[in-house]
Amino acid sequence: MQKWKVLLVDDEKEFVSALSERLMLRGLDVRIAFSGEEALGSVQSDPPQVVVLDVMMPGLGGAEVFRRIRELHPNIPVIFLTGQGCSVDRRQTVPYGAFECLVKPLDIDDLIRTISSAIGLCETPALLSE
Questions:
Q1: How far apart are CA 32 and CA 91, in angstroms?
Q2: 42-73, pLDDT tens digit by residue?
Q3: Is the pLDDT of residue 123 over 50?
Q4: What CATH number was assigned to the domain covering residues 5-128?
Q5: At 120, is the pLDDT very low, low, confident or very high (cuts 50, 70, 90)?
Q6: Which of 52, 68, 37, 32 is nearest to 117 (CA)?
Q7: Average of pLDDT values for 87-94?
Q8: 127: exposed, middle or buried (C-beta count within 10 Å: 0-12, 13-18, 19+)?
Q9: By the 8 A CB rule, do 4 and 113 touch?
Q10: Highest mean pLDDT among 37-46, 59-68, 104-113, 119-128
Q11: Long-range contacts of 18-26 (CB under 8 A, 24+ apart)
């Protein structure tokens, strides 16, 4: 079975490292970026199947990273993460092509289902279930 290639982008290093480990334990091929600039470099050098992107980051923020990813690879789905609640962020992101906006703290199963949907799969493979 081919592993799904996911890029996690968040400036909260402990959060993204822990999330990465949980996703890798479920069979995903996870890359990490701690800044918008790092994320764009990763998308250019090794495009993922889906990007999980924090909305609020210092420097190059999520909205700008999203816009640039769209320019580079318009078909890569982007799932936004926010700690602020998604009502405002959803209005600012989903109409412009973001796949979904999820609220931190994340439920890992919800995230995996969202990644699965974004990649276009009907069911989460047994490999990824607990």
A1: 26
A2: 999 999 999 999 988 999 988 889 989 999 89
A3: no
A4: 3.40.50.2300
A5: confident
A6: 52
A7: 55
A8: exposed
A9: no
A10: 37-46
A11: 19/106, 19/108, 19/111, 22/108, 23/108, 23/111, 23/112, 26/108, 26/112, 26/127, 26/128, 26/129, 26/130
Among all chains, which residue has been given the structure tokens 């994320």? 39
Q: Can you give the pLDDT at residue 44?
A: 95
Place of tokens 């490999």: 127
